[in-house]
Amino acid sequence: MSDKHALIVGASRGIGLGLTERFLERGWSVTATQRVGSGGNLAHAADRVGDRLRLEHVDINDTAQVSALRERLDGARFDLVLVNAGITHDRWETVAEVSTATFERLMLTNALSPMRFVEQFRDLVTPHGVLAVTSSGQGSITNNTRVTGWEIYRASKSALNQLMRSFAARHADDPRTLLLLAPGWVRTEMGGPDAGLSVEASTSGLADVVETFSGRSGLHYVDHRGATVPW
Ligand SMILES: NC(=O)c1ccc[n+]([C@@H]2O[C@H](COP(=O)([O-])OP(=O)(O)OC[C@H]3O[C@@H](n4cnc5c(N)ncnc54)[C@H](OP(=O)(O)O)[C@@H]3O)[C@@H](O)[C@H]2O)c1
After folding, report:
1. Atom of ligand 1 at shortest distance to CA of 113?
2. Rounded to two decimals, what is the model's pTM?
3. What dotted CATH number matches 5-223?
4. Tens of pLDDT, residues 15-31
5. Which strand ranges, in their side-by-side order, compose the sheet holding 177-182?
6. Which of 84, 152, 190 maximizes ligand 1 atoms within 8 Å of its Cβ, making it the mutation to test the pocket?
């Protein structure tokens, strides 16, 4: 059994739930969060592994809830803090069509709130641990050369990447590993049924990435196979 401990935020379903299961399989303890009222499957995982899985509640857009969680976890030490929560929008909605409210909701949930969380929880990560955010290959500006939709989602993940780079520059002497994870296109509620990867395949790869990059300082933008994604 490992003595490692992860905090995974946005773990009610999809990739977050898959990552929770992968780390539990590898013997880690996991503190996994969902939103109040979220109808996910975390409770079933808790039934199977007992006290290695602790459930918490937080909506990353609610600063009071985030601060309350930080207080509840004060004194805890994590080998991994991963902010996985994210949302998308109608695939073919362009910047010409999107409402201001949708644009703001994506930027808040996918860029500002994850980075606020990173700022507040950074000091709970062990010196050789990993501070990670689920980004996306869709956040790559270099690879954005074809019309594939999800324009606003892409922009929100690019903003997340840029903010993480600023964070990394501010903490250049910090030994902790910083990861922007690109899961591939995965069959979840967000990814849809046509996506090429199962949750298990993507999250097995992402768990390997976390374990492989642990102890390597600096910021790495990597996919589920461990390959660097061009910015
Ligand atoms: N699926 C893909 O192909 C793909 C590809 C690249 C990157 N990603 C990224 O991977 C991450 C997970 O995606 P997924 O495919 O697993 O999506 P999903 O099945 O839609 O799950 C999204 C998760 O985020 C949580 N969440 C959303 N807004 C939140 C908030 N304000 N506060 C706390 N939790 C919140 C959801 O909780 P509730 O259950 O409470 O709604 C749920 O647990 C996202 O960051 C996404 O952008 C996905």
Report:
1. 31
2. 0.97
3. 3.40.50.720
4. 999 999 999 999 999 99
5. 53-57, 29-34, 5-9, 78-83, 125-134, 177-182, 218-223
6. 190
